[in-house]
C-alpha cells in the first residue's frame, strides 16, 4: 500500500457491489483489509459487506449531510499518515454519491488519491441496454422542480448520444410519459435491480415501456436509458421541419392500413419521431384548412 507526500496517508476510492456481494475485486478486499479507517456513506450497509468477507476495521460515516465537517476530520487523519478507504452505499463513490468533495480537498492539500475500480449502475445498465454504447451522457438524478426538469429536457433534447439517468421507481411512469411528450417515442431501456434476484431489463419505445409499468408497482432501484436524438432531431427537427402534407400522408396511410384513429396518431408520431401532440396539432390545422378551401 503506497503513501502520499510528506508521510501523509492515501485516500482509496473503493468500488463496492451494487447488489450481488460477489461483485467485489480481490484488490478491493485487500485494501479494505489493510487501511486504517473506512469512511462509509451508510455504515450499516458497509458492515454487512465487511462481515460477509470477515473484515473488521474501524468505520466512520461520511455522507451528504456531514460531509463538510467529516471531510475536515478525514483530511486531518490523512495528513497524520492514516490510509483511508472511502466507500459509498453501493457502486463507485462519487457517482451520484458523496465523494467528490473529499477528493477535491485531498488534491488541494497534495494528498494522494487512488481508485480501486468496481461496478457502477450506470455502466452495468448501459452495456446490456441494447442502445449505443460508443458515446453516452450520464446525467445522474433528474432535478426536483418542474422548471429545472423542463430546462434539462430542452438542453438534452438534441443530444445524439445515449442518455442515462438514475430515477426513483415511484417517479418512473411519470418520467417516461414526460419524456415521450418532449422527445417523441424514442427507444429506451429500464434497467432495474441490477445484479440482484429480480434483475430486469425492459426495452422498447418510451410508450411501450410506460404502458408496461403503468399498472405495476415499480420496486427497487432503477436506471433509465434513452436513445439519443436522431440526426434530424439533433439538428432541430420538429413538425415545423416536416411538411404538414408529409405528416397527413403518413397518418392517412396508417388509417388505410386499418389503424384506429388514436393508434394511427401514435404510430405516425413514432414513425416520424415527433411528439404525438405535435402530430395532432398539425392534423387539426390541416383539417381546418381543408374545410375552408
Ligand atoms: N454510486 C452508485 C453507482 O456507482 O452506480 C450510484 C448511487 S446513487 C445514490 C443510487 C442510484 O443508482 C439508484 O437510485 C439507482 O438509480 C442506481 N442504482 C444503484 N444500484 C442499482 C441497481 N442494482 N440496479 C439499478 N439501479 C441501481
Descriptive notes:
It is a single chain. The chain is of the alpha/beta class. It has 3 domains: 10-119, Cobalt-precorrin-4 Transmethylase, domain 1, CATH 3.40.1010; 122-234, Methyltransferase, Cobalt-precorrin-4 Transmethylase, Domain 2 (2-Layer Sandwich), CATH 3.30.950.10; 242-292. The protein contains 12 helices and 10 strands. The chain has a 5-stranded parallel beta sheet with strand order 3-2-4-1-5, with helices on both faces. It has a 5-stranded mixed beta sheet with strand order 6-7-10-8-9. Helix 2 links the parallel strand 2 and strand 3. Helix 10 crosses helix 11. The protein is elongated and about 85 Å long. The mean pLDDT is 91. Bound molecules: S-adenosylmethionine. S-adenosylmethionine is lined by residues 18-19, 88, 90-92, 95-97, 120-122, 166-167, 191-196, 221-223.
Helix content: 40-55%
Q: State the end-to-end CA separation.
A: 82 Å
CATH architecture of the largest domain: 2-Layer Sandwich
Q: Considering the protein shown, what is the CATH homologous superfamily of the largest domain?
A: Tetrapyrrole methylase, C-terminal domain
- Give the amount of beta strand, in percent: 15-25%
Mean pLDDT: 91
User: What is the top-level CATH class of the largest domain?
Assistant: Alpha Beta
Taking all Cα atoms into account, the compactness measure Rg is 25 Å
Our count of helices gives 12
**Order of SSEs, N→C?**
EHEHEHEHEHEHEHEEHEHHHH
**Broad shape:** elongated
Report on the biggest sheet. 5 strands, parallel
Ligand names: S-adenosylmethionine
Strand neighbour order, sheet with most strands: 3-2-4-1-5
Q: Return the structural class.
A: alpha/beta
Q: Return the CATH topology of the largest domain.
A: Methyltransferase, Cobalt-precorrin-4 Transmethylase, Domain 2
Number of domains: 3
Q: What ranges have pLDDT less than 50 throughout 5 or more consecutive residues?
A: none
